[in-house]
């Protein structure tokens, strides 16, 4: 029987396909996730872009969805570091005591900037490999470069007891 985990996947909306891909690669290893993150349907994206939904409403919804999750994954893409909502979600996850796993987006060739709050609060940061992602979700504290090689010593990483 497959392991089932409730997770919140923080990501830049341009990286929506990566959220689907993480779910697929993990389910192929009999590790199923139920993702509680927000993914705006096209008809709602316009309302968000036009600021017809208040930030307070979005924050309330994100808090509810994140409280439900046992872990948080942050998809690290080319533009993730510049997304204020991603940094806010990471800070919220930290305040809620959630383990935070950074996962480099599949297909990246060069090192990319990591969100500021991920640098401060991450439990692990791994390359796009099912075994590395599963290990991090199971509590293994591992810090990798984009290519899967071990990163330099990670000081000040956040661990949840």
What is the percent of helical residues?
25-40%
Strand order of the largest sheet: 2-1-3-4-5
Mean pLDDT: 86
Main sheet properties: 5 strands, parallel
Structure classification: alpha/beta
Secondary structure: number of strands: 5
Terminal-residue CA separation: 27 Å
In DSSP terms (H or I, runs of 4 or more residues), the helix count works out at 6
| Succession of helices and strands | EHEHHEHEHEH
Radius of gyration: 15 Å
- State the low-pLDDT regions, or none: none
Strand content: 15-25%
Shape: globular
Structural summary, described in words:
There is one protein chain. The chain is of the alpha/beta class and 161 residues long. 37% of the residues lie in helices and 17% in strands. It is built from 6 helices and 5 strands, in the order βαβααβαβαβα. It has helices at residues 16-27, 42-49, 55-68, 84-95, 116-121, 130-137; strands at 3-10, 31-35, 71-76, 100-104, 124-126. Strands 2-1-3-4-5 form a 5-stranded parallel beta sheet, with helices on both faces. The longest helix has 14 residues, at 55-68. The radius of gyration is 15 Å and the shape is globular. The chain starts with a strand and ends in a 24-residue tail after the last helix.
């Amino acid at each position: 029987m497959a392991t089932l985990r409730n997770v919140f996947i923080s990501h830049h909306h341009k990286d929506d396909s990566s959220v689907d891909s993480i779910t697929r690669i993990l389910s192929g290893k009999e590790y199923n996730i139920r993702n509680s993150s927000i993914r705006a349907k096209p008809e709602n994206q316009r309302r968000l872009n036009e600021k017809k939904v208040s930030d307070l409403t979005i924050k309330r919804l994100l808090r509810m969805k994140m409280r439900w999750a046992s872990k948080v994954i942050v998809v690290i893409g080319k533009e993730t570091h510049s997304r204020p909502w991603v940094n806010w979600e990471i800070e919220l996850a930290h305040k809620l005591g959630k383990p935070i796993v950074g996962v480099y987006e599949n297909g990246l060739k060069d090192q990319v900037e990591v969100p500021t709050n991920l640098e401060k609060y991450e439990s692990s940061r791994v390359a796009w490999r099912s075994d590395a992602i599963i290990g991090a979700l199971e509590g293994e504290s591992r810090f990798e470069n984009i290519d899967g090689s071990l990163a330099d010593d990670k000081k000040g990483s956040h661990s949840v007891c």
